[in-house]
Amino acid sequence: MFSSTITDFWSAPFAGGEVLRNDPNFILAINPELDDDRRVTVLETTAGVTSAALTPALAEKLELREQAELSAASFRQLLRQNQVLLHEADYLFYFPAAAQEALREEPAADRVRQLTEQDSAVFAEFQASATEQDLDDAYVELDHWAVFGSFDGERLVSASSMYPWENAPVADLGVLTLPEFRGKGHARGVVRAICSYATSRGYEPQYRCQLDNHASQALAIASGLARFGSWEVISPDSTN
């Protein structure tokens, strides 16, 4: 369903280093290439496979090699027992491989266009009309790698921005629509336009949202994305 770019990208953290378990439903690996702020990373795909990777230092603290036959559930229990806290999970959405060619060829809606620094005034007005919480959650910025907006007349009412992950084939996006303009197709238009831009430049658009954000999940599906799985990393509040 998904391109090999995505499947290869997400298999890499759990296939390198020392693989302790490789069962049909649970993969556990020690990966020295993980950054410290991702010293635990856990991926659960929609196919029901849970993959986990840890740095060697954390694996040693947890005495991971001495543990009995761990399952996904007992691994999570081991983390909790050792006060290793995971950040709240994000759902990951990508375009199915079969949908990407049509996406690249799709023209943007009439009211949607790419934004540049010349749009700083309308973008500032847009930000001023949004709540601080919405701005923090969406993380839409005019100086990101790509920015698209949807207009109601001359007013910017929805915007999406995107930035490529470092040394990765994916480009992460955020989207924000002013409350009074939601449900009118603006967000879907900017998401598809910015994702078309990214795929035409060799990136896989990546849409993330928290598990309890049902409106964001609905937007992803309405935009043609499909859920790949859920992803967790170490919490900044973790003591280990």
From TrEMBL:
Specify the superkingdom.
Answer: Bacteria
Q: Return the PROSITE patterns for the record.
A: GNAT
State the Gene Ontology terms under molecular function: acyltransferase activity, transferring groups other than amino-acyl groups
Q: Where is the N-acetyltransferase domain?
A: 110-240
- Keyword Transferase listed: yes
Pfam families per the UniProt record, alphabetical = Acetyltransf_1
Keywords in alphabetical order? Transferase
Q: Which CDD domains does the UniProt record give?
A: NAT_SF (cd04301)
Q: What is this protein called?
A: RimJ/RimL family protein N-acetyltransferase
Lineage runs:
Bacteria, Bacillati, Actinomycetota, Actinomycetes, Micrococcales
